[in-house]
Specification:
CATH topology of chain C: Cytochrome-c3 Hydrogenase, chain B
Strand order of the largest sheet of chain C: 1-2-3
Helix content of chain C: 40-55%
Distance between the termini of chain C: 21 Å
Largest sheet of chain B: none
Chains: A alpha+beta (about 120), B mainly alpha (about 325), C alpha+beta (about 400)
Strand content of chain B: under 5%
Radius of gyration of chain C: 21 Å
Oligomer: heterotrimer
CATH architecture of chain C: Orthogonal Bundle
Structural class of chain C: alpha+beta
CATH class of chain C: Mainly Alpha
Order of helices and strands of chain B: HHHHHHHHHHHH
Strand content of chain C: 15-25%
Shape of chain C: globular
Number of helices of chain B: 12
Chain lengths: ~120, ~325, ~400
């Protein structure tokens, strides 16, 4: 009986489907989306590359003068991430000392080129 | 003598085959939409069954190795032709001009043909799942056929005629038969659900048990025609129940301009078949599938005995009213 | 009809993951069953030997999507015990909250799949709609709907803010009301009762003899739950009950799982309201001392066991995963004999199979032309176990 009553109630109420892409899905601000690196903050310590479980971060040449904790450092390398191999686990963001590498709160990142690199 | 042009328009345009296809696709859309809304989903748009039909007609036809492709091509066409012919004898805007005494039996026989077609398809596909599905289809036919036929023959006994149009005319002068034979109405609805192989009786096609049963090896235009057969059977079945129990497309009084009478009759036909569809959709949404041996139990213990009781009551009523 | 072989799998609409049942059937009755489980093998146990303790946790999480937190927590718990690291109470509570939320989403998923197997698609749509509330909560807390990534050696990765706790608490009353409705539906819905009652019955002695675990065993009256009998995380401090049933058939297992759904909501509510303050992680050493540990955890499907051997480096030397589904397959092979063909999806779905957790190697013998599924020995035992139905 409870099934019948619920069926008839549902017939007169709104469906719960979110009509994506006409309606946007609400994304919380802890969402783990696309990986990105802020070049101004990165000190090139390679910690992200060492903890990545999928080994998608390689360190390439990227000299820049960065300020970190009041000291001026001459950075030698910066990370290059294979965007579509990243499993978005968040370990790089957790172990980064400056907060430069992070996961953005965007959903549904797609592309046609399989070897897109993010630096 | 009946005007041949009128007959041709009746058969091919309205309320013949063109109207039949349009109405079958519309009822299929409504069935899916009602089921979806009851489950709090959105459901397909109104052109979905038509789009499905066009898409399937354009797909590749795959012949399994060792299967006779000529029979595989012919069987869906024969099944579709059978149910389309059955629609010509049920009343849509008034009495059918092709009616004759005994057309109730012809309609019932023609509606059985799709099930036999499914069994043949299942048996001839060299596939274990199709064979099991085909055997289940025929077993189900044996189980529900007796109560279903008995429930649909009691209106004929009470109205004293074997023609559907005359039963409808009888109901115009007396009460609707659903009030005089409620048990028969319920048995007929359950039997119709079993004939159309919808949940809880979609045992031959059980997706999680036998892949798709006899439908497994159908592809392309064969699948499109077989699917269309199911949809047309839904129309013919609900029209039959509406005509035999709910009074068909006739009002208890005749309106004076003939075209107004026809239009009102057509409107009543739409309302009554949609009501039957609503009940059938609700049964589909509210239940799960039965097992074939459980259907055996229920069919013979409850449905057949209810139908026999109904026949007994009708015979007693006829005897008491006719003799004194 | 003479005896025919009905191949269920590896591709079949009844199965969500590939597994090969070769059913020998006589008409609609099943005579014998032959089982082959090797289709999802990915070599995760070997890959885990080459990653250090920080990098191995996301790998072990991805053994299974539905019980991902179970694998990660079982491993983390084991390594922390070898290292002698005590994690702070706030981290214990957060791990418990995520574990119970995972149990809820897994049981709601199972209820929908069981209804779908008997053709009752309405209940499937409704339970998956309610599962969205649990998934939204998990997404807010951890950032992803599956593969939460909450665990680290030494604690959890991220904290729960007050806003997240309040949002989770506001979703709980709706879930509790829906679960009460499902309890009532399971007890009174005719087609579910008629398809589930008396199907796949297993007595208590048979459950113990064939090594069934989890809700499958608890439905046969085996009163064993790792959360109570070998306690871990915050379970000793939170009031909850173990749900058992005496029927032993699919209906009993349904009742156990719906009962566990209710208990999980109570545990989550209690943990959210009494979350202790403090740090969420401690600093763990890089290398683990030499040792062996057998870490047990109550996954949604039953008792999950990780055997870990470490040798003083920063990697595990051997990880052996005994998932609950692996223990339950023998009971399926035993229950299916003499049942109807139409009951196969129901009985298989009743143990809540998760083939991704289960798969082991296949041994191909070229000389004799056989393909056997063998399980390499456990904790030094060199024997192989073969999974076939009765001869």
């Amino acid at each position: 009986m409870s099934v019948l009553r619920e069926m008839i109630e549902n017939l007169f109420s709104r469906p719960v489907t979110i009509l994506y892409p006409w309606t946007k899905v609400p994304i919380p601000d802890t969402f783990r989306g696309r990986v990105a690196n802020t070049d101004e903050l990165c000190i090139g310590c390679s910690k992200c590359s060492l903890v990545c479980p999928a080994q998608v971060i390689t360190m390439i040449d990227g000299p820049r003068d960065v300020e970190f904790k009041g000291k001026n450092l001459a950075r030698k390398k910066r990370p290059q991430i294979d965007l579509f191999k990243c499993i978005r686990c968040g370990l790089c963001e957790r172990y980064c000392p400056t907060g430069s590498i992070h996961l953005e709160h965007v959903q549904g990142v797609t592309g046609t080129d399989r070897d897109v690199m993010v630096t | 003598m009946i005007d041949p042009v009128f007959i041709l328009i009746y058969i091919f345009v309205f309320p013949g085959f063109l109207f039949l296809f349009a109405y079958a696709l519309f009822l299929s859309y409504l069935d899916r939409k009602i089921a979806a809304r009851m489950q709090q989903r959105v459901g397909p748009p109104f052109y979905q069954p038509f789009a499905d039909l066009i898409k399937m007609l354009g797909k590749e036809v795959i012949n399994p190795h060792g299967v006779d492709w000529r029979i595989f091509d012919a069987i869906p066409v024969v099944a579709l032709a059978a149910v389309m012919t059955a629609f010509l004898y049920v009343p849509v805007t008034g009495a059918s001009p092709l009616a004759f005494s005994g057309d109730l039996i012809v309609v019932l026989y023609l509606m059985t043909l799709p099930t036999i077609a499914l069994f043949l398809l299942g048996w001839l596909s060299r596939n274990i799942f199709s064979a099991i599905g085909g055997i289940r289809a025929v077993t189900q036919l044996f189980i529900y056929e007796v109560p279903f036929f008995l429930a649909l023959l009691t209106p004929a006994i009470m109205a004293g005629s074997w023609s559907i149009s005359e039963i409808v005319l009888w109901q115009q002068h007396n009460l609707w038969l659903v009030f005089l034979q409620p048990i028969g109405f319920i048995v007929a609805l359950i039997g119709l659900q079993a004939k159309l192989e919808r949940t809880p009786f979609d045992i031959p096609e059980a997706e999680t048990e036998v892949v798709a049963g006899p439908w497994t090896e159908l592809t392309g235009r064969r699948l499109a025609l077989m699917h269309l057969t199911t949809e047309v059977s839904l129309v013919v079945g609900s029209t039959l129940i509406a005509a035999l129990f709910l009074g068909g497309p006739l009002l208890p009084w005749t309106l004076s301009p003939a075209w107004l009478n026809g239009a009102c009759g057509f409107g009543l036909f739409l309302v009554k078949t949609l009501a039957v569809l609503l009940v059938l959709s609700s049964i589909t949404v509210a239940t799960g599938r039965l097992r074939i041996d459980q259907l055996n139990d229920i069919g013979w213990k409850y449905l057949a005995s209810a139908a026999l009781v109904q026949v007994g009551i009708v015979l007693v009523i006829n005897y008491l009213w006719v003799i004194p | 009809m003479p005896e025919v072989v009905v191949p269920i799998g590896p591709h079949h609409p009844a199965l969500k993951e590939p597994v090969n049942f070769r059913i020998i059937a006589d008409g609609e009755k099943i005579v014998r069953l032959e089982l082959d489980l090797s289709y999802n093998h990915r070599g995760i146990e070997k890959a885990a030997e080459q990653r250090n303790f920080i990098r191995v946790l996301p790998l072990l999480e991805r053994v299974c999507g539905i019980c991902s937190h179970s694998h990660a927590t079982a491993f983390a718990k084991g390594i922390e015990e070898i290292m002698g690291v005590e994690i702070p109470p706030r981290a214990q509570y957060i791990r418990t909250i995520i574990a119970e939320l995972e149990r809820m989403h897994s049981h709601l998923l199972w209820l929908g799949v069981a209804a779908h197997e008997i053709g009752f698609n309405t209940l499937f749509m409704w339970t998956w709609r309610d599962r969205e509330a649990v998934q939204d909560t998990l997404e807010e807390m951890s950032g992803n709907r599956v593969h939460y990534g909450m665990n680290e050696i030494g604690g959890v990765r991220c904290d729960l803010t007050t806003a997240q706790i309040n949002a989770a608490l506001s979703r709980l009353p709706v879930l509790e009301e829906r679960i009460k409705k499902y309890q009532e539906m399971v007890n009174s819905e005719e087609t579910m009762l008629i398809r589930f009652r008396g199907v796949g019955r297993m007595s208590k002695e048979e459950a113990l003899k064939y090594g069934a675990v989890g809700p499958t065993a608890r439905a046969s009256g085996v009163d064993y739950d790792v959360r109570r009998d070998d306690p871990y995380l915050a379970y000793p401090e939170v009031p909850w009950n173990v749900i058992t049933d005496t029927r032993g058939d699919v209906y009993g297992r349904t009742r156990v799982r719906v009962g566990e759904l209710w208990e999980s909501t109570q545990i989550v509510r209690s943990c959210l309201e009494n979350l202790p303050a403090g740090p969420i992680r401690v600093e763990a050493p890089k290398n683990a001392p030499k040792g062996e540990i057998f870490s047990r955890y109550e996954a949604p499907r039953g008792e999950l066991a990780h055997f870990i051997r470490t040798n003083g480096t920063d990697k595990a030397e051997r990880v052996d995963i005994r998932s609950p589904t692996l223990a339950n397959w023998t009971s399926v092979a035993m229950c299916l004999v003499n049942q109807n063909l139409a009951d196969i999806p129901v009985i298989v779905a009743a143990i809540d199979p998760c083939l991704s957790c289960t798969c082991r190697m296949v041994v191909v013998n070229q000389k004799s032309g056989t393909t056997d599924m063998a399980e390499p020995g456990f904790a030094g035992d060199p024997g192989g176990r073969r999974y076939r139905g009765r001869p």
